[in-house]
Design goal:
By secondary structure, the protein is mostly helical. The protein has a domain of 81 residues. The protein is built from five helices and no strands. The radius of gyration is 37 Å and the shape is rod-shaped. The model has no long low-confidence stretch (mean pLDDT 89).
């Protein structure tokens, strides 16, 4: 009976069950999630710095336009055109620049030019004022 009891005990032992292991997928999922989180954070930080840099550049261009001295009209017309073109980023400034640019052209390509006329000066001041309000 002892032997029979022993074989019954052995028959009652069930085979090992396979336990599903998802730790491998969880591990790579966490790595992927962390990577996406890191990349998105870096993207927004870089975007924030880029936008601030752009605003700072526009402020610098505006300050350069305000400092233009119209004593040397030819040189000043080149500077005004350069900075106004850089600042013409929205629709309103582009429209004013499209009117201002032909007015400045008459002072750029001649050997000797006369002083800036009032209409051009007023259009330039309007452009500076509009750019100052929108920055």
């Amino acid at each position: 009976m002892n032997e029979e009891n022993l074989t019954n005990q052995l028959r009652d032992i069930k085979p090992l069950l396979e336990i599903p292991d998802h730790s491998y997928y969880i591990y790579w999922g966490l790595i992927l999630f962390g990577s996406l989180l890191l990349v998105s954070t870096l993207f927004f930080i870089i975007k924030k710095f880029w936008d601030n840099r752009k605003i700072n550049l526009e402020k610098g261009y505006l300050e350069a336009m305000k400092k233009i001295d119209w004593v040397n009209t030819k040189k000043s017309a080149y500077e005004a055109t350069h900075y106004a073109r850089l600042l013409a980023t929205d629709e309103r400034r582009q429209e004013i620049f499209s009117h201002l640019e032909p007015m400045l052209e008459q002072y750029k390509y001649k050997k000797e030019v006369e002083n800036l006329d009032e209409e051009t000066k007023n259009k330039f001041n309007l452009y500076v004022q509009v750019a100052d309000e929108s920055i």
